[in-house]
Amino acid sequence: MEQLDPERFFRANRQIILCIDAVDHAEPYFNGKIIVIVRPAFKEKITISEEKLSSFKQWLNY
């Protein structure tokens, strides 16, 4: 992760690193989480925790 450009990539969780070009939109989930919808579609739900939500929103505003 240290070698990836932080303006283009975001660690959603331990398994998933998002590229800003793939993010289509985000939807509210539950318990303060959101689901990220990507293109092309990913078969599992990509969730952003409440703890990472602020960082994720800042990342989208680059």
TrEMBL record:
Domain of life assignment: Bacteria
PROSITE patterns to which the protein is assigned, alphabetical: HTH_LYTTR (PS50930)
Cited Pfam families: LytTR (PF04397)
Annotated HTH LytTR-type domain residues: 1-62
Gene3D superfamilies xref list: LytTr DNA-binding domain
Signal peptide interval: none
Keyword Endoplasmic reticulum listed: no
Key words of the record: DNA-binding
GO molecular function: DNA binding
Name listed for the protein in its UniProt record: LytTr DNA-binding domain-containing protein
Organism expressing this protein natively: Parabacteroides chinchillae
Taxonomic lineage from the root: Bacteria, Pseudomonadati, Bacteroidota, Bacteroidia, Bacteroidales
